[in-house]
């Protein structure tokens, strides 16, 4: 165990222990808490202080030397360099938010890049659960069972282009639990939900097509559609789903080919479509002859009883998309789609041309997680933990005088701070906090006072105080009380 006052390193985190230890010393050097010429603890003492092996310490010190922060003196130990290059690089690909000046995210690509670089503990704008909310033992157990059973079969062939047969059978049961009746032959596995959406865009849409999208909506999807030459028709998203009057008018005027939407735990607002709105939306799809792509990437974080369009439609006009990276691990890029057979054939052909097949090994491991029921239990624990986090964050937001556009649900909340959130992004980033301004989720990049809040990464009261101070600097409304 670590001794003294050193906070413990996080075992099982996405960043290895050596990288965490290197970052810890690098930050102290940058902040002048360790001055040039200072001697670091010996390998043995450092290992004892931080509760790690000497091998981990050696690896960390090697990273610091490679970054130009340390020098090794023969038979004396490791010392902070007397002089360093002016452009010192962080000894890890995942730098802490205060490591060096960074630019606030102002488009979809910058948002993704910022999230890869971010420290989850200081990233209220993060789009995923932090690593310490996930269950590495669940993944390790699945891989061990795979190695002990039929690993050879899935590791020595391309696999089925449609996806692992056991995973598709398990997914058929998962969908049945949601009221979506799809047999395994109606399911196509993909390299994550984003890949599934990309296959749909490339297979079923053409440059110049008009497509209805939620506004606010997923910034990455706006970018992908625009890159493919698709005309976006933004539909305002409210507390109970899309504004169907606006959708109806847009559909009548532009004859859209499709509507891409999130019916449950919408990103970024956290809202879910109600049953009456779902029925009306499907009637409009029939009336105007467009198909619907239902992205249910956050479905495991929602109660199963919430209405899915695919369940009401029977996969007639609706193609259902989901994945596992949000609840298992972002490293396991396993997703899938369910569709009518006539749609699925063309989508499978595109997948074949795109990369032949997807990872049979990871798909079989996910199948084991589903078959054992452990994924369902893990998801239930996440829902309970998120419910507690939402209560805490609601109190923190209220204390600082902020309001929600609607009651938060799932992983996200849509917060109104009273000033243009794009103006807040850089000063907050300079203070060490990565946020996701509302303009990133606008199809027209319209500025506004809203921002996405991640319920799992926004529980530090220091963030809410920093947000309050930043808003006040821009003339925002005063705090309550």
TrEMBL record:
Single Gene Ontology MF annotation: DNA binding
Annotated protein name in UniProt: DNA-binding transcriptional MocR family regulator
Residues in coiled coil: 372-399
Keywords, sorted A to Z: Coiled coil, DNA-binding, Pyridoxal phosphate, Transcription, Transcription regulation
Pfam families with a match to the protein in the record: Aminotran_1_2, GntR
Organism of this sequence: Roseateles saccharophilus (Pseudomonas saccharophila)
Gene3D superfamilies (UniProt xref): Type I PLP-dependent aspartate aminotransferase-like (Major domain), Winged helix-like DNA-binding domain superfamily/Winged helix DNA-binding domain
Domain HTH gntR-type: start-end pairs: 15-83
Family from the record: In the C-terminal section; belongs to the class-I pyridoxal-phosphate-dependent aminotransferase family.
InterPro entries named in the record: Aminotransferase_I/II_large (IPR004839), HTH_trans_reg/aminotransferase (IPR051446), PyrdxlP-dep_Trfase (IPR015424), PyrdxlP-dep_Trfase_major (IPR015421), Tscrpt_reg_HTH_GntR (IPR000524), WH-like_DNA-bd_sf (IPR036388), WH_DNA-bd_sf (IPR036390)
Nucleotide-binding found in the keyword field: no
């Amino acid at each position: 165990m670590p001794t003294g006052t050193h906070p413990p390193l996080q075992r099982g985190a996405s960043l290895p222990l050596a990288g965490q230890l290197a970052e810890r010393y690098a930050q102290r050097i940058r902040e002048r808490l360790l001055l040039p010429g200072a001697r670091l603890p010996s390998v043995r003492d450092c290992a004892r202080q931080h509760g790690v092996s000497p091998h981990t310490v050696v690896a960390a010190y090697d990273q610091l030397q490679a970054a130009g922060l340390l020098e090794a003196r023969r038979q004396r130990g490791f010392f902070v360099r007397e002089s360093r290059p002016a452009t010192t690089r962080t000894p890890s690909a995942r730098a802490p938010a205060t490591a060096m000046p960074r630019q606030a995210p102002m488009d979809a690509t910058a948002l993704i890049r910022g999230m890869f670089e971010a420290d989850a503990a200081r990233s209220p704008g993060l789009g995923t659960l932090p690593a310490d909310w996930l269950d590495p033992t669940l993944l390790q157990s699945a891989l061990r069972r795979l190695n002990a059973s039929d690993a050879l079969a899935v590791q020595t062939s391309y696999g089925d282009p449609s996806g692992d047969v056991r995973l598709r059978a398990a997914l058929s049961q998962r969908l049945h639990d949601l009221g979506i009746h799809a047999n395994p032959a109606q399911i196509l596995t993909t390299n994550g939900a984003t890949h599934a959406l990309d296959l749909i865009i490339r297979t079923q849409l053409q440059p110049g097509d008009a497509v209805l999208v939620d506004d606010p909506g997923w910034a990455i999807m706006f970018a992908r559609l625009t890159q493919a030459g698709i005309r976006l028709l933004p539909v305002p998203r409210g507390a109970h789903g899309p504004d169907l009057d606006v959708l109806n008018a847009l559909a009548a005027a532009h004859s859209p080919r499709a509507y891409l939407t999130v019916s449950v735990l919408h990103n970024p607002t956290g809202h879910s479509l109600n049953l009456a709105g779902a029925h009306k939306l499907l009637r409009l799809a029939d009336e105007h002859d467009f198909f619907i792509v239902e992205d249910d990437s956050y479905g495991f974080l929602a109660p199963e009883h919430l209405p899915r369009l695919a369940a009401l439609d029977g996969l007639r006009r609706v193609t259902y998309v989901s994945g596992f990276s949000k609840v298992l691990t972002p490293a396991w890029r396993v997703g899938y789609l369910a569709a009518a057979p006539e749609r699925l054939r063309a989508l499978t052909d595109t997948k074949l041309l795109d990369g032949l097949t997807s990872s049979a090994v990871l798909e079989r491991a996910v199948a084991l997680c589903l078959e054992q029921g452990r994924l369902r239990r893990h998801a239930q624990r996440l829902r309970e933990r998120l419910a507690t986090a939402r209560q805490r964050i609601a109190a923190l937001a209220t204390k600082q005088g902020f309001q929600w556009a609607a009651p938060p649900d799932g992983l996200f909340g849509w917060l109104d701070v009273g000033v243009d959130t794009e103006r807040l992004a850089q000063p907050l980033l300079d203070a060490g906090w990565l946020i996701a301004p509302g303009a990133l989720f606008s199809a027209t990049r319209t500025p506004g006072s809203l921002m996405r809040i991640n319920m799992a990464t926004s529980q530090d009261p220091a963030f809410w105080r920093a947000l309050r101070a930043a808003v006040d600097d821009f003339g925002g409304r005063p705090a309550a009380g």
